[in-house]
Design brief:
Distance between the termini: 19 Å
Radius of gyration: 16 Å
Strand order of the largest sheet: 3-2-4-5-6
Order of helices and strands: EHEHEHEHEEEHE
Number of strands: 8
Oligomer: single chain
Number of helices: 5
Shape: globular
Helix content: 25-40%
Largest sheet: 5 strands, parallel
CATH class: Alpha Beta
Number of domains: 1
Strand content: 25-35%
Length: about 180
């Protein structure tokens, strides 16, 4: 790959989100007891988009929430001296529900581990599934996604950048920046 490589454009992102929504509905056999929770920041946008697709397909709303994992991170002291904690918004009971946790990129698995810890503080779901736009490999924990938009082989020091219009005010895309991990 050259220096920076676009691996998904806006149409690719849209198709991946729609496919993930269909796969969730197929595996869940509908929307009963289903809820979707996005991990801040881009996971929230993707969760909302998946939820909109489900609504188009099924004609029903699915409870959708926002999860901030800042205080659950195992690298909190490495991130910042004064980390910024954002609001978690889960205005429904997750106990006994099928929760689909949504994030933009699955890398080491540590973000998802933190999200699982945070989520359990809100109740005991019947199951938790993971949906990600991009799985780039290099897992450090035994975590895998149930729904993946695109698997991308990367080097460990590459940066996979998901750009979404709602957050970045630019056209949706996914770019691999070689050797620029942050």
């Amino acid at each position: 790959m050259p220096e920076d490589t676009k691996i998904m454009d806006k149409d690719d992102v849209k198709r991946a989100v729609m496919r993930i929504a269909h796969e969730i509905l197929e595996k869940s056999k509908g929307v009963e007891d289903l809820c979707i929770i996005g991990i801040r920041t881009r996971g929230v946008v993707l969760a909302d988009r998946i939820n909109e697709c489900i609504k188009e397909i099924e004609g029903k709303n699915v409870p959708c929430g926002v999860l901030d994992i800042t205080l659950y991170r195992d690298d909190l002291t490495l991130v910042a001296n004064q980390p910024i904690v954002h609001e978690t918004k889960i205005a429904f009971d997750i106990s006994g529900k099928r929760v689909v946790l949504v994030d933009d990129v699955l890398f080491t698995g540590r973000t998802i581990r933190a999200a699982l810890d945070a989520l359990i503080d809100f109740g005991r779901p019947s199951c938790i599934q993971l949906a990600v736009l991009v799985d780039r490999g290099h897992r450090e924990l035994p975590i895998r996604a149930d729904y993946v938009g695109k698997n991308i082989p990367t080097n460990r020091d590459d940066n996979v950048k998901v750009i979404l219009k709602e957050n970045d005010k630019k056209e949706d895309q996914v770019v691999v920046e070689k050797g620029k991990i942050k």
